[in-house]
Amino acid sequence: MSSDIQRVELDDAATFEKTARAIAQEIFSRGMMAVRLPDPLTLLEGDDEDLKRTFLVACHDGYAEAQRRIGAEIQRIQKATAEANAARKTARKLRDRNRQVQAEAALWILRREEQVLRRLADSIAWMLAGDRRWIVRRFFRREKPPSLVHSRYADTLRVAEGFREDDPTRFALVSDITSVVQVGDLLVASRGGSLKLVELKTGKVNRVVDEILQKFDLEHRSAEVDNVRANHGDSVAAQTERVLRQQARMTNIAEVINTDYGLDPLTGHSLMLSKDIARGETYDSAVHDLLKIAQEEGSAFRIIDECLDIGIYDTSKVPLAEMEFNHHAYHDRNPEATCRESPEMSDEGFLDAISPRWPVFNVGQMLLEDSMSRPLFLRPFEMDDIFDIIFGRLVILTSLRFDRFIDLCNASGTPLRWGSDSEGRVARRLAPDVLMINGRHLRVQNSTEWDVIVGPGIIHQVVAEGVRPTSGALMLGRLGAETMDRASGWVADGRL
Fold first, then answer.
1. CB atoms < 10 A from the CB of 479, how many?
2. φ and ψ at residue 455, rounded to 5 degrees
3. 361-362 and 394-400 as β-strands: parallel, antiparallel, unpaired?
4. Which residues neighbour 56 within 8 Å (Cβ) at sequence distance 6 or greater?
5. What's the pLDDT score for residue 489?
6. DSSP label at 307?
7. Which pLDDT score, from 0 to 100, does residue 60 have?
8. What is the per-residue pLDDT across 117-132, written as a single tens digit (0 to 9) for each?
9. How far is residue 38 CA from its own chain's centroid?
C-alpha cells in the first residue's frame, strides 16, 4: 500500500510541475509572444507607443490567466490540506504511525506546492512594483497567507477582472493569492507605473460601516466609536475600528511610496526613504556558468569576492549535496589537506574535518519560504533551471565567510564589527529580527553615536538573491550613514 501511495505522490508532483510551468509561461512569456521581439529592451528603448500598449495589454492578459489558475490551484491545495490534517489527526488518535507519516508527507508536499504558486503570484507583484524592493517591502506585514476556501476570493477576483474590462492597460492583483502583498484586497497598477491599494467592502455590516465613516470625525475617534457601539452594537463598532486601521495603513503606505516619508507599517516608526537608489552588482553570470557545469559534471564550486562560497549540485549524481559542498569548502580553506585520502582518518573524523564554520544556506528553499525575498522566477536563468532548483533536482548552496566579509566591509569603508554579548542582549530586545550568526550579531558604526544593528535583509540578498558581497558591503555602509536623523526623529530606509 505504501508503494502505491508513493507512486501517486510522484505522479501528482509531475502534474503539479506541469501546471506551474504553464502558469509561469503565462506570466513571463505572453507579452513577448504578442510583440514577437527577442529582447524586451528593443521595445522599451523604442518610440512605438502602439507596440508598447500591445505588449502591456498582453502581459496583463497573461497575468490575469495566471491569477485565475493560481487561485483555483490554491483552493484545491487548501481543501486537500484540510483533508490531510484530518487524516493525521485520526492516525494520531488510532496510534497508526504509518498513516500519520503518510499524512505528514502529503502535508509537506501540499505546503511546498502552495509556496510555489504564491511565489509565482509574488513575481507579478514585484513586476507591478517595477522590481523595487523598497516598495514591495511596504506591502508586507509578516502575516500568514490567508485561506481562499472561506474568504471572499471569488468576489474579489470578479472586481479585479472588472478593472481590466474598463481599461486593459490596468491590472488588479488579488492580494490573497500572494505571500507578500498583505495590505488591501487588490494591488492595482496603471500604465505609467502608478500603484494603488484597494480595500473592498461587501456585506450588510460593511455597508453600514461605510455610511458611518462618511460622517465620522477622526479628531474625536474614541467618542465616535462609543457612539457607534451604542447605536449599532459591538460587531459594527469592532468592524468600524478594523476599517479605520486598514485605511490608516493604506494611507501610510501610499504616503511613503509617493512622497518618500510616512510611517513604516511593520514598526510604526516615522520613515524616510533614502534619496538614492542602490542597485547591487550580482553574481548571476557566475551562477549561470556553475549551473551548466553542475549539469554536465554533477557539481560545481566557486568563491565570489573571496568570501562567499557557492556550490551547485545535480542530486541525481551527487545525492549528499551539503556534504560535498562542505568538502569543497574544506579543501579551499586547506589546499594542502588530503582529508579522506588519509587511510587513518575515520568516517567521524572526516565529517568533523569538513564541518562548516559558517551557516550553509539552501538558496532554492530560502527563496520559496521567505516571502520578502525577490522570487527566483525573476532571476535571469533558464526556466528549466529554475524548476530544477525548485523541485530539488539542482541544489544551490552558499556560505558567507563572515570573518572575510567583515574584512571586505572595513576595506571598502563600511565599519562592520561583531557586537559584544551585552550588546547582543540589548539588540535582541530592540530588534527581534536581528541577524544572529553562531550566537553573535553584527553592527555597523553610524555617523552618530548609534550603531546600526544588522538584520537579515542585505545578508540575505548576498547569500540567496545573487548580490555580490562587495555590493552588500557598500549597502551596509549606506545604512550606517543614513539610518537615523536624531534631530528629526526619522528612521531612514535605503532604496535597496
1. 22
2. -90, -175
3. antiparallel
4. 31, 169, 191
5. 41
6. T
7. 95
8. 999 999 999 999 989 8
9. 28
